[in-house]
């Protein structure tokens, strides 16, 4: 049984930075990590990837050969990857014995809310390779500073959750930068808990464009509340405590904590001055030493 994360989110939400930071953190607490780049438009990677979709297909080649734009090209690439799933499975096979997998997907939101190719790729990997994956949906925290954009982020998160049908964690990324965009209308808990969105209406009405669609906005907020599925956790990828708390949440969602006996959950201390202390403590527990 192999565990991992499917990292998704709109362009600019920090997916590649997340994969880089998360892989470093997981390595420091003793896990062997493999990052799989499935974004054919990402040709400048800050991390060393174990599998790269550009070895199979490149977005620039697709756009030139088929006269497609970036969006159409990405859809074509995901369709091509689905048809060549054996290639991906073959590249993943050597990693399945002892690696934790991070899948870095493209940022085109249509791939995870409208089109089925990316979902089909994920589902085939889960079925054929016995993977246990959690979707990590990153949303830039600065959207909280604009009520209209925040509602859009809620709808996108809900749509993605329903479409992918995976264990799902929504993350407000770049939380350390949120103050740069001005004071929030409410405290941060309001945006993470996603309760009683009617309080947003007053702030939405201050924008003449939003006031015109007041009834529509209310109905959309009601849809989000009626499902009751969307909430957020926060992340500062440069803060080890923040990353550690997210890892604990992810380990519960995909079952990693139960498969490894809870070592990473019980003995990973993000407040440790040295992350190596966590590794040594965890190894000592495994070996039966106090």
Question: Key terms for this structure?
Answer:
290 residues, Rossmann fold, 15 helices
What does this structure look like?
With 290 residues, the chain is of the alpha/beta class. The protein has one domain: P-loop containing nucleotide triphosphate hydrolases (Rossmann fold). Helices cover 50% and strands 13% of the residues. It is built from 15 helices and 7 strands. The chain has helices spanning 15-28, 59-66, 70-83, 85-92, 110-113, 117-129, 147-164, 188-193, 200-205, 208-211, 214-227, 240-254, 256-259, 263-267, 275-286, and strands spanning 2-8, 33-37, 51-52, 100-104, 131-140, 168-173, 232-234. A 7-stranded parallel sheet has the order 3-2-4-1-5-6-7, sandwiched between helices. Helix 7 (147-164) crosses helix 11 (214-227). It is globular. Mean pLDDT is 89; it is low at 281-290.
Quick summary:
The chain is of the alpha/beta class and 290 residues long. Helix content is 50%, strand content 13%. It has a single domain, classed as 3-Layer(aba) Sandwich (Rossmann fold), CATH 3.40.50.
Poorly predicted regions: 281-290
Distance between the termini: 28 Å
Describe the main β-sheet briefly: 7 strands, parallel
How confident is the prediction overall: mean pLDDT? 89
GO molecular function: GTP binding; GTPase activity
Subunit structure: Binds to RNA polymerase II (RNAPII).
InterPro entries: Gpn, Gpn2
Family: Belongs to the GPN-loop GTPase family.
């Amino acid at each position: 049984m192999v565990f991992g994360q499917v990292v998704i989110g709109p362009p600019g939400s920090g997916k590649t930075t997340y994969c880089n930071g998360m892989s470093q953190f997981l390595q420091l607490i003793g896990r062997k990590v493999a990052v799989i780049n499935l974004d054919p438009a990402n040709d400048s990677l800050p991390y060393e990837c174990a599998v790269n979709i550009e070895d199979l297909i490149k977005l620039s080649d697709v756009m030139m050969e088929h006269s497609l734009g970036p969006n159409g090209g990405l859809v074509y690439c995901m369709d091509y990857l689905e048809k060549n799933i054996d290639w991906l499975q073959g590249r993943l096979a050597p990693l399945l014995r002892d690696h934790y997998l991070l899948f870095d997907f493209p940022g085109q939101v249509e791939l995870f809310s409208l089109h089925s190719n990316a979902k089909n790729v994920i589902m085939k990997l889960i079925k054929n390779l016995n993977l246990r994956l959690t979707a990590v949906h990153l949303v830039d925290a600065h959207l909280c500073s604009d009520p209209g954009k925040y509602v859009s982020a809620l709808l996108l998160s809900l749509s993605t959750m329903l479409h992918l049908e995976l264990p799902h964690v929504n993350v407000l990324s770049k939380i350390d930068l949120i103050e740069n965009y001005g004071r929030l209308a409410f405290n941060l808990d309001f945006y993470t808990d996603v309760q009683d969105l009617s309080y947003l209406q007053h702030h939405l009405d201050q924008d003449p464009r939003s006031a015109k669609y007041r009834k529509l906005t209310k109905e959309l907020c009601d849809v989000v509340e009626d499902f009751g599925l969307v909430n957020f956790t926060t992340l500062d990828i440069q803060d080890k405590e923040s990353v550690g708390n997210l890892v604990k949440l992810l380990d519960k969602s995909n079952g990693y904590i139960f498969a490894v006996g809870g070592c990473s959950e019980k003995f990973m201390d993000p407040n440790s001055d040295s992350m190596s202390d966590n590794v040594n403590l965890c190894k000592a527990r495994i070996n039966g030493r106090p």
